[in-house]
Amino acid sequence: MAEHGQYYVAIVGGAVSGSVAAELLADHGIRVAVFEQNKRPYGKIEDGLPRWHAEQRRQEYRRIDARLKKPGIQFIPSVKLGQDLDFRDLCDHWGFSAVILANGAWRDRDLGVPGAEQYVGKGLLYQNPFIHWYNHKSEKGYSGPQYDAPDEALVVGGGLASIDVVKILQLENYARALQARGVESTLHDLEKGIPAFCKPRGIDPASLGVKGCLLIYRRREQDMPLAQPPENATPEQIAKTEHVRQKMIRLARDRYLFRFQDRRMATGLIVEGGRLTGLKLTETKVEGRKADPIPGSEHELRAPLVVSSIGSVPEAIPGVAMKGEYYTFTDDNLPRYAGSDHVFGVGNVVTGQGNIRVSLDHSQKVTTQLIENYMGVGEGGGDFSGLYASAEARAAARATAVEEGVKTLPALSPSQVAALDQRIRSLQQRVGYTSDYDSWIAKVTPPDLE
Ligand SMILES: Cc1cc2nc3c(=O)[nH]c(=O)nc-3n(C[C@H](O)[C@H](O)[C@H](O)COP(=O)(O)OP(=O)(O)OC[C@H]3O[C@@H](n4cnc5c(N)ncnc54)[C@H](O)[C@@H]3O)c2cc1C
């Protein structure tokens, strides 16, 4: 089977970037196994995008479903790399032609104040678990951690996700205050804007007694990463982006009535009775990307809850080498894991942040390169034509690989493919996935999921 083997690719993570890679491979006749840690494969769409994005979330779920149920794709839910599946074993012993990491960025960056970690859950929360709770807390079957969303919380952030955290806190507090006054509101009513909800009802929002949460950001408000200038931007384009950022934060404050301070940096903790009850802050002097503390400007800020929302990075996985906060991918164009020539990365696990479009485009670009340059399946694969890579295509792939000094990916014999199928089936059965993708999703979707 040297010239006519079949490719079999493992993908870790089934959300936007994983499902896009799976579909592309399957459309070229390549077999795919998608290992997903959760029962449902929607990643940041389900647990990151706050639930007021109801229609967008449903649309993305449908897109992911349509991709993952393509023929040739095996979905293996409830299998976590690093816990149920060993990274080195997957790469070196399972026998896949390639492994694509599409497991996103789920570790919150540390708050960066020494000693803060011991107060997680005791006055300090990170964005990822906070939004997961918010998105699922109303489900009857939710059994995860329960959090409060008290008034006057302090949010450390500055990016788009931190604005979502602030919105959640404000929506929760205003809904409570309105209810105390006998006025029912839904999340979707309030998300359109708190003053817009109050005005036709003759309510002055200030009379509701909500003091509002406070968002602090270490640079200037026009530096907030809410919008990005184009590459190689002119001074005019940079000025325009800064203006857009200021407008975005102003609009968000008008709608959700939160407080905001720029040029503030957390330098210490206030701890009382074993709980974090606030932060020591300093003002900063901003020059370019640098934000330095201004001596003498130190002050204390008490808060019933501190939420840190300063970015997400990939989770550390036993056996996966890291360079700083990221896995060691060697090349920006084709992110190849430094420790293995057949392990690649797509989406947030490489980019760290971004959005749905960025993850989708990144996955498409990387997977297309893999298919065309390292598998030699090329354009026009589809149905059966790509299942067995032609000798010419494989020769062309090999030529590209030799030119670039790397090995082509191995194609497998029928018995190797059958052995992988068998191993995958037994994993699926172990978690109760015994039928098809649609029946599984129907079985594990909470009836009251928004
Ligand atoms: C608060 C917030 C708001 C956002 N709002 C928007 C928005 O309005 N518009 C927009 O376009 N984008 C938004 N985004 C960004 C967008 O959701 C993401 O950039 C995109 O969905 C990431 O897709 P991904 O496939 O790369 O990663 P993910 O969605 O993170 O997918 C990774 C998958 O891998 C799985 N996984 C993780 N670890 C393992 C493991 N060890 N083993 C097995 N499986 C694993 C996860 O369960 C998940 O299914 C938002 C993000 C956040 C956090």
Task: Explain what you see.
The chain has 450 residues and is of the alpha/beta class. It folds into 2 domains: 8-106 and 314-444, FAD/NAD(P)-binding domain (3-Layer(bba) Sandwich); 109-311, FAD/NAD(P)-binding domain (3-Layer(bba) Sandwich), CATH 3.50.50.60. Helices cover 36% and strands 16% of the residues. The chain has 14 helices and 18 strands. The chain has helices spanning 16-27, 43-47, 54-68, 87-92, 127-136, 160-180, 187-191, 194-198, 235-256, 348-351, 356-375, 391-404, 414-430, 437-444; strands at 8-12, 31-35, 73-76, 98-101, 107-108, 124-126, 154-156, 214-216, 259-261, 264-272, 275-287, 290-293, 299-302, 306-308, 312-313, 322-323, 326-327, 343-345. The strands form 5 sheets. The protein has a 5-stranded parallel sheet, with helices on both faces. Strands 6-14-7-8-9 form a 5-stranded parallel sheet. The longest helix is centred in the middle third of the chain and has 22 residues, at 235-256. The radius of gyration is 24 Å and the shape is globular. 41% of the residues are buried. The structure holds flavin-adenine dinucleotide. The site of flavin-adenine dinucleotide (FAD) has 35 residues, from helix 1, helix 2, helix 6 and helix 11. Residues 12-18, 35-38, 41, 43-45, 48-49, 80-82, 102-104, 106, 131, 161, 164, 317, 347-348, 354-357, 359 line the site of flavin-adenine dinucleotide.
List the helices and strands and how they pair.
Layout: E1 8-12, H1 16-27, E2 31-35, H2 43-47, H3 54-68, E3 73-76, H4 87-92, E4 98-101, E5 107-108, E6 124-126, H5 127-136, E7 154-156, H6 160-180, H7 187-191, H8 194-198, E8 214-216, H9 235-256, E9 259-261, E10 264-272, E11 275-287, E12 290-293, E13 299-302, E14 306-308, E15 312-313, E16 322-323, E17 326-327, E18 343-345, H10 348-351, H11 356-375, H12 391-404, H13 414-430, H14 437-444
Parallel strand pairs: 1-2, 1-4, 2-3, 4-18, 6-14, 7-8, 7-14, 8-9
Antiparallel strand pairs: 5-15, 10-11, 11-12, 11-13, 16-17
Helix pairs in contact: 1-3, 1-11, 5-6, 11-12
Bound molecules: flavin-adenine dinucleotide (FAD).
